[in-house]
Write a structure and sequence with these properties.
Elements lengths: L1 H22 L15 E2 L4 E9 L5 E11 L6 E2 L2 H7 L16 H8 L1 H4 L3 H13 L4 H10 L1 H13 L12 H4 L9
Antiparallel strand pairs: 1-4, 2-3
Helix pairs in contact: 3-6, 6-7
Protein name: PAR1 protein
Keywords: Signal
Organism: Ilex paraguariensis (yerba mate)
């Protein structure tokens, strides 16, 4: 079991090195969909998984380049260890701050295995939390000391979905990257 996992990881990294070496750079649109989410192109822009309807009416997936630039990181494909440690799913279409409302997700994101070792994922959720008016390091500290209280404070911060409004929402704050602490 461990040897097959090790072989899979070696093949994954060999393929990613081959992909990077043969193209000279990471272009989101050229990435396989199973490594798209949580990857960063050579341009420093995040890759995101999108779905679309094919001509025969089936749903297919494609990797696209977002407009979100990640400062200090480029040409990065997230490791399977971080995906697992942080509780994220590479097959998720679109990423939302709603995941922060799930206690199990927040516990994994704030765990030492994720928070201290996976700066790409932590930075992404730091920005999503900031867009909701939540400071992720504070949320994680509360998660470690009193998980129930952390969820109450997150919901009371306004991050929870509220009543539907007829006015358009201002999504520019969520789309703008916040400055993460230097430990990321």
């Amino acid at each position: 079991m461990a040897s097959s996992m090790r072989l899979s990881l070696i093949l994954f990294f060999a393929c990613s090195l081959f992909l990077q070496g043969s193209l000279g750079e990471i272009i989101c649109e050229d990435l396989p969909t199973d490594v798209c989410a949580f990857s960063i192109a050579s341009s420093g822009k995040r890759c995101l998984l999108e779905n679309y309807a094919t001509k025969d009416g089936k749903v297919a997936y494609q990797c696209r380049t977002s407009e979100v630039v990640v400062g200090g990181m480029a040409e990065y494909i997230e490791t399977d260890e971080c995906v697992s440690a942080c509780g994220v799913d590479r097959n998720t279409v679109g990423i939302s701050s709603d995941a922060l409302l799930e206690p199990q997700f927040t516990a994994k994101l704030c765990s030492a295995a994720c928070y201290q070792n996976c700066p790409n994922i932590v930075h992404l959720y730091f920005n999503l939390a900031a867009g909701e008016g939540v400071f992720l390091p504070d949320l994680c500290e509360k998660q470690r000391t009193n998980p129930h209280r952390a969820m109450i404070e997150l919901v009371s911060s306004g991050a929870a979905p509220g009543p539907v409004s007829s006015e358009p929402a201002d999504i520019t704050a969520a789309a703008q990257p916040a400055t993460a602490p230097s430990s990321f």
